[in-house]
Amino acid sequence: SVGGGGAVFSSDWSSVLFESSKIRNCSSNLNGGCVYHSEFSNFSSYSSSYENCSIDHVEQGSLDSDRGGGFYVQSSFVFFQSSSISDSSAFYGGAVYLAQGSVFSASGDSIFANNNASLGATIYVADNSTFSVERGSLVLATELSDCTSSDFCKKVTGTHCLVSRVLSQYSCTCGLESYFNADLCVECPCFSCPDLTTTRQAGSTSVSDCDACVVGYYSPDVFTSNCTRCPPLTTSNGTGKSSIEDCLSYKPLLSYEFEPGEFLLDSSGNGYTLTNYGATGSTLSEQGRLAAAFTGQEYMTVPSSFDYAEVQRSTGITFSFSFRATPNTSAHAKLFDFGAGAPDNNVGVGFDGRSKPSTGVLSFDLYSGTQPASEMLTNESFRDGKWHYVVYSIDSNSTSHPSTVQIWVDAVQYFSYTDQISNTIESVDQSLRTLYLAKSHWAEDGSLDGAIDDFRIYDFPFTSFDVQQHYDALGSAYPSTNYAMAAQVMRDKVPWGIYHAEDFDSQSTQCWAESRGVQAPATCDNGNFVSGFEIGHGASANVSFVSGNTSSVLTWPNGSIPSEFSICSISRYAGTSQQRVLTANNSLLDWFHGHGYGMIGVAYYNGWKAEVGLSSSSAEDWLVMCGRNDYNIPGNIQRALGSSSAIESAGTAGGGIGGANLTVNSVSDQESDFAVSQVFIWDQLLTDDEMGWVGRALLEYLGTGISLKIIEF
User: Which Pfam families does the entry mention (predicted)?
Assistant: First the structure.
């Protein structure tokens, strides 16, 4: 090229997209051997390469030329994902030269290899420009450099090496869930696979071998779609599963749910029907279901044919149940007690009034003959009239190590305990075996005043993952599956920011606090605002809102539209001015989410992603909207009107640009009369299923008004 840009010249608010493309052997006699990009333009590069780009020197070293062997960027934005610049050269910035407030955002596995310059072999940053590497990305520079001075490698003890050298003198064997990174100058120990992924076999040598989701998660392709957690009460049978259909229900050996018509029946299908001694089903559990109520001498028994000791010895065993005990419960009462007498090879959970006679702490007992082999006390009684969820797990016997006991209450682990003699449930002959619920083998222990629900026994020891899968469905305070599954998403992929309208303070310029206090508040920059609760506009319950007119300007903090984002919101038009509601304030970014040009349910992330709006009898109906900037359509945009019963996928194009501040009414001639209820922001990509779960919880909020604060992490 005689001017700038050997292959590409873009300027004056233009947009350029390169995907799975290659530019090579190009040169310019001015700036930008391959690409010249200027004047408030956007350049997006996905899985593309730029090789052997250079400057044909007119005046070597001139700041008016000889800049950016690969890219010259001026007053513009570059989104650079899983792409590479190699074998390129200039006097300033062998790979990239950034000028006049430009932004170059690298993500994914991006590589800058063998580039050369007198100043800035890889990147030359000038004039308040920014070169950023997204969290979790692998950006490598492989110029020859001594290990002791390079920022791109770690020192190997006693050895000096070049960054690009393979450490063949070391011999490493990695187990599952790790790999040895032979492409960098690093120490021998293996690297862990990225979160929620694992290798399929031991001995892996590259992160590319981390191509399988861990147990309980699934993904069609871990390199293009994050691993998604299975729904509550399900898990996967092994690693490397690809779809939600691979999530299978847990199979208990026995299960008592105490529901009408099945009050004593074993829902596992194995036929262990309870015998009832006076208990009723009139008590509601945390999840609003019936539970077995005990108010005095009532109790139940499990059939003695169930050999719990044999289960523990051969495969391990887990007891899982919810209970509620009032302060009137005896300080020695048992929740369950399996064994042959008082005491005789018992295993059980109850209260121990010996250590704290006035309260009776929660106790987990395991007897060998007539002596306690293990007695684990929580130091808390839990006789507080509230529902609690318990897991008591004992692994199988082994000649190599004693059995391990693990105990959780309300999904919090209290013990992981290995007895140095043995943690073994002793066998009891069936003719002597009595398996009590809400009764102790010790007559003097007193009774339970409370309830038990969802009593289950499994033939394997639980992990923390198994506990959480059960707690979300059976023991938590979540009012519905939608809320439980949305909370699961929050736990697995913690949001960057959460903004509930009930936290809005119109008396402060720092007016909208982030719910957890982990980000700065959104600011009220101009105009007047109203906040409160309202019914209507598609909401059948009282829901929180913040509203304003066309002069009311809200601005969220820096990073509120991350370079890689997922955003879910509840918003609506609230008057006759109907342009954008949630938008961006960055002059480099043309962006809106949910509302635009009088349409509802549309998305424009520097390009249309959903351009056909929803039909509604009122333009002022609430809209639930989730969107992300990846290429998996149509699930990248999910939406529903507040009066709807289901979320729909609506993406018509993928991708999109982030890297700006979320705002309302910051764009001239695009102001609206608006109301916003909820904003959830992630600096990572949610899957289709995860966005659907969050969207359904937001939609349910419009119907019930139950605070969404209970799902946040």
Answer: Laminin_G_3
The number of beta carbons lying within 10 Å of the beta carbon of residue 454 is 24
Domain hosting residue 126, numbered range:
8-167
The span from the CA of 188 to the CA of 353, in Å, is 54
Does residue 486 sit in helix, strand or coil? Answer: helix
150 Cβ neighbours under 8 A, 6+ residues apart: 163, 185
435 CB-near residues (< 8 Å, 6+ apart): 301, 302, 303, 304, 306, 308, 336, 338
- Provide the token pair at 301: 């028994």
DSSP 263: T
Based on the fold, state whether residues 534 and 463 are members of the same structural domain. no
Same domain, 155 and 77: yes
- pLDDT at res. 129: 79
Residues of the chain above pLDDT 70, percent: 85
Q: Which positions ≥6 away from 517 have C-beta within 8 Å?
A: none
What residues are paired with 301 via a beta bridge? 275, 436
At 110-120, the pLDDT tens digits run 888 888 888 77
Q: Which sign, positive or negative, has the C-alpha torsion 206, 196, 458, 366?
A: positive
Taking phi over 0 as left and psi of -120 to 50 as alpha, with beta for the rest, 336 belongs to beta
Q: Say if residues 41 and 14 touch (Cβ distance below 8 Å).
A: yes
Number of domains in the chain: 5
435 and 449 belong to one structural domain: yes
Biggest alpha carbon–alpha carbon distance for the chain = 99
For residue 246, give every residue at least 6 positions away whose Cβ sits within 8 Å of its Cβ, in sequence order, or none. Answer: 218, 236, 237
Summarize the chain as % helix, strand, coil (round to 5). Answer: 10, 40, 50
User: Is residue 675 domain-shared with residue 706, that is, in the same domain?
Assistant: yes
* d(C-alpha 349, C-alpha 363), whole Å: 6
Q: 204 with 210: CB under 8 angstroms? A: yes
Residue 484 domain flag: no
Query: What phi and psi, each to the nearest 5 degrees, are found at residue 570?
Result: -125, 120
For residue 574, the cross-strand partners are none
Mean pLDDT, range 60-67, rounded to an integer:
67
pLDDT attached to residue 678: 98
Q: How far apart are CA 119 and CA 122, in angstroms?
A: 9
Regarding whether 351 and 499 lie in a shared domain, the answer is: no
* Whether residue 136 is found in the same domain as residue 269: no
Q: Same domain for 310 and 378?
A: yes
Q: In the predicted model, is pLDDT for residue 203 greater than 70?
A: no
The DSSP symbol for 183 reads T
The reported pTM is 0.59
Distance from C-alpha of 15 to C-alpha of 596, rounded to nearest angstrom: 20
Residues 465 and 556 in one domain: no
Task: Indicate the burial class of 541 (C-beta count within 10 angstroms; 0-12, 13-18, 19 or more).
Answer: middle
Dihedral over alpha carbons 648, 653, 656, 662 (to 10 degrees)? -40
Tell whether the model's pLDDT for residue 330 goes beyond 50: yes
Domain annotation covers residue 675: yes
